[in-house]
Amino acid sequence: MACPLAPEPVYPRPDPHHNQFIRRLFKGLHSWLGLITDVDYRIPIGSVQFLGLNLFLVNQPQAVKRVMVDAVEQFPKHPYTLWVLEPLIGRAIFSVNGSEWERQRRMVDQAFQVAQLRRVLPQMQGAVAAMVERLDASLIAARPADSAGGVALEIDQAMTLVTADVIVRTILSRPLQQAEASGIFEAFARYQRRAGQVLILRLMRLPQRRLQAYLGRHAATIRRWIDGAIEERLRAAAVPASVPQDLLQALLEARDPQSGTGFARAELLDQVCFLFLAGHETSASALGMAAYLLSCYPEVQQRLRAEVQQLMGSRAGAPEGLSFDDLRQLPYAAAVFNETLRLYPPVSFFIREACREGDLVDRRCPLGSLVTISPWVVQRQEQQWPQPHGFRPERFLAESCSAEERQLARDVWIPYGMGPRKCPGAAFALQEALLVLAELVRRYELLPEPGQTPDLVARLTLRSRNGIRLRLRRLPEAEVAP
Ligand code: HEM
Fold first, then answer.
1. In terms of residue numbers, what domain contains 252?
2. Measured distance CA(383)–CA(377) in Å, rounded
3. What's the confidence (pLDDT) of residue 400?
4. How far, CA to CA in Å, does 233 sit from each of 133, 181, 237, 270?
5. Hey, which of 423, 428, 430, 437 would you mutate to test ligand 1's pocket, going by the most ligand atoms within 8 Å of its Cβ?
6. What is the distance between the alpha carbons of residues 151 and 454, in angstroms, rounded to a whole number?
7. Averaged in consecutive runs of 10 residues, what is the pLDDT profile of the chain (482 residues)?
8. Is 149 a member of any domain?
């Protein structure tokens, strides 16, 4: 299965190993992937001492499981996670620990129950229909130039817009206006850029207060906008008969069974700021890369389209949008998305702090060590994965994958994390991705844009610095219709 652009899909080649950690840190200012050298893809565990701090990179499956599941209390989220995100998300669920986290998690889990996923499906469908309208409008605007080669467009932008629209509709029951979107995306992009740099500067011991104040300026725009949107939504629902069934409502109604308390208004703002970040940045990153891969691998795209067309054919006469149950009939689409998450995990590293002295594989892990687990590195480990850098969705297809591959998917496929801190939005993300991918391949042919290769950088999430450009061609109506 050859990609017309490269034998393996694009990834930033690591430097050959060297011991100058400070040089790696400077590369890390631009992208966290700059810290990794070629040896890191092969070793069970890496460690280095820098300015008195012990840094570990844990790749071995049992050690990963120990940090994230078996001895999770011994390895809480590192304080750097809290303070790099605090200006934006306050003390929301993602970065706090202990009983503060447990209480929030009990309530967030209530908001993400399966019933809730069914309830928000129409809002997701609305956002995907709006995406199709925007893409069609771009194709019509370019029509004189539209030939068999399709129309070039920035798919990363299109995916950012649709995923942000999904999250605004599902949390706040209203669409994202295009006019407000660009200012917000710019503020997020700036925050991401600065946050990645600030983490590295903190490792170099720059003072925390100054760095946080610097981040705060970029966070303020986003928080103001989200606060205003929550207020507007609460006012609209003041009449009991018009209370929308959205995620905000689920968060408002959630009660901690142990204390009987719910989220206070200030906590609600922090949670929504985080859900907006977690819910759109990650999915946009994954869907942008999935679309890129489909444009590079026409056989995969065709097989996915055939799966969707067969499903559409079998439900002729049913309402236009794919239903909750339909989405369970798209195993190949799910495999494409899961393989994209393996190659391009949107959250490419997690950092934990060793709050007790202990062992990691064959090494002593002193108290206070910074322990990093990187889905990017773990999911490309050469000893674990056959063709680790190749794009093979069949790895995730129950009917064709080997027992060994099934085990790998259980042990070393960690794009959503693992253990008690695992992402509660995973099913939400998959539901959204299936809707978007099904509509994309059903209506359009995705073609590569010659000479365009994503320049991947890992900051808070993995994004392409130069966008993701590909060509889109509308399929004839006869092929689209159910
Ligand atoms: C492809 C999309 C997504 C990916 C790859 C992803 C990945 C992750 C990862 C890796 C973590 C943290 C794991 C750790 O540090 O141990 C996380 C946490 C979280 N994610 Fe997601 N996520 C995605 C989508 C979403 C969506 C759509 C939502 C909600 C709308 C969401 C909500 C959350 C929450 C609330 C947490 C915090 C959990 C906790 O700390 O207990 N995520 N996610």
1. 21-480
2. 12
3. 82
4. 25, 17, 6, 16
5. 423
6. 18
7. 60 85 80 89 91 92 95 95 92 97 97 88 96 94 71 95 96 90 86 83 79 84 94 84 86 94 96 94 97 97 97 83 93 98 97 94 92 96 89 91 82 96 97 98 96 92 95 81 57
8. yes
Contact present, 45 and 57 (Cβ < 8 Å): yes
The whole-angstrom separation of Cα 71 and Cα 172 is 37
Gap from CA of 425 to ligand 1 centroid (Å)? 6
Q: Is the CB of 424 under 6 A from ligand 1?
A: yes
Cβ–ligand 1 contact at 65 (below 6 Å): no
Q: Using the mean position of ligand 1's atoms as its centre, give its distance from the Cα of residue 141 in Å.
A: 37
> Which secondary structure element, helix H or strand E, spans residue 50, and what is its range?
strand 45-50
Q: Is residue 229 part of a domain?
A: yes
344 lines ligand 1 (CB under 6 A): no
Predicted pLDDT of residue 28: 79
37 found inside a domain: yes
Please report, for the domain that includes residue 262, its CATH number: 1.10.630.10
Q: Is the CB of 278 under 6 A from ligand 1?
A: yes
